């Protein structure tokens, strides 16, 4: 693997491949395990992730990189192989979530700021030694009748830019993730309102990235799609694709090598259909792919249920979603392929 930031970034968005977001924090993975009545122990978390990373067909053909949580980057498989080495052996790149989560922003009622900048330089150097070649930081923006405020948008953009500059100094490609939530309060905003907020957030983020001297060739953007609120969903696949491509073209310089979407609570098939519609219908200067958490893992976790004997079924479920999204990353997915699986 080449170590230039540009080359790592290009490999992360290689045609027909995308990123597996397996970086659920301890709290989030507990919620996922609760849904299958499984206690979240260190071994259970290891077993689950080992199951995913050993799904060879999925990993080798469709997964360019995997975002890990701190614990996972330090963990070893049952046979003693480091999990990061399993990922590398499959030709995929290990990455690391480095933010410390979204916390209440002082003075801003109902808005958050993502923390984790203190000591980040040292942590990044250690993560590099442990094999991580890219990182992720998620800023969170919620939509309501009165939110977001300019102050919260700008402070989150500044934190993203400072994080990105520190990553590049450490030889690590930053995934810059400003997520506008689908499920704000009350979560019934229109797709036009989502466009307006996404436009403001992306403009602000790229301004801050310039000011922080971040090299755009050595980063990946991880945005939300432009979509209506979770409790008001009525936009068509074509509308989501059109408005998402429009907001990206209005804001993302062509020197950014790739854009990898979050799924953000969309159903598995919706997330795939939207990505495929964009790639099939539009000429774009960047590779457009997925960096899905829930939309890649929901079926697999259900099939697994915490039981060894279900590992093959869970790997098959994960491989299916990875393949569908791999097709979507080239615009070649159809509903028929979904059914024929
Ligand atoms: P979802 O695809 O489940 O939104 O997760 C992606 C992610 O990494 C959010 O930070």
UniProtKB/TrEMBL annotation:
One annotated GO biological process: glycolytic process
Sections of the chain in a coiled coil: none
Entry's transmembrane regions: none
GO molecular function: fructose-bisphosphate aldolase activity
Lineage, uppermost ranks: Bacteria, Pseudomonadati, Pseudomonadota, Alphaproteobacteria, Hyphomicrobiales
Source superkingdom: Bacteria
Designated name of the protein: Fructose-bisphosphate aldolase
Pathway recorded for this protein: Carbohydrate degradation; glycolysis; D-glyceraldehyde 3-phosphate and glycerone phosphate from D-glucose: step 4/4
Family designation: Belongs to the class I fructose-bisphosphate aldolase family.
């Amino acid at each position: 693997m080449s170590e230039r930031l540009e080359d790592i970034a290009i490999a992360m968005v290689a045609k027909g491949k995308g990123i597996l977001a397996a970086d659920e924090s301890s709290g989030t993975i507990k919620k996922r395990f609760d849904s299958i009545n499984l206690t979240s122990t260190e071994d259970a978390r290891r077993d689950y992730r080992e199951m995913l990373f050993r799904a060879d067909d999925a990993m080798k053909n469709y997964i360019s990189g995997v975002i890990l949580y701190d614990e996972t980057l330090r963990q070893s498989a049952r046979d003693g192989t480091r999990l990061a080495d399993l990922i590398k052996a499959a030709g995929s790149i290990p990455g690391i979530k480095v933010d410390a989560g979204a916390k209440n922003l002082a003075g801003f009622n109902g808005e958050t700021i993502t923390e984790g900048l203190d000591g980040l330089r040292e942590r990044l150097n250690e993560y590099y030694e442990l094999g991580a070649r890219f990182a992720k930081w998620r800023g969170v923006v919620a939509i309501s009748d009165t939110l977001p405020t300019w102050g919260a948008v700008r402070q989150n953009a500044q934190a993203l830019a400072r994080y990105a500059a520190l990553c590049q100094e450490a030889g690590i490609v930053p995934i810059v993730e400003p997520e506008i939530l689908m499920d704000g309060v009350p979560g019934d905003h229109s797709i036009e309102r989502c466009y307006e907020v996404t436009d403001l957030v992306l403009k602000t983020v790229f301004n801050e990235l310039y000011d922080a001297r971040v090299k755009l060739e050595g980063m990946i953007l991880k945005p939300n799609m432009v979509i209506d609120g979770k409790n008001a969903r009525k936009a068509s696949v074509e509308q989501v694709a059109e408005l998402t491509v429009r907001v990206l073209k209005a804001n993302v310089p062509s020197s950014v090598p790739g854009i990898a979407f979050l799924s953000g609570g969309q159903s598995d098939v919706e997330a795939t259909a939207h990505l495929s519609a964009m790639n099939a219908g539009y000429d774009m200067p960047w590779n457009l792919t997925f960096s899905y958490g829930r939309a890649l893992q929901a079926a697999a976790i259900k099939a697994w249920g915490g039981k060894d004997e279900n590992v093959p079924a869970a790997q098959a479920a994960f491989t299916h979603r990875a393949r569908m999204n791999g097709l979507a990353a080239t615009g070649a997915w159809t509903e028929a392929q979904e059914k024929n699986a």
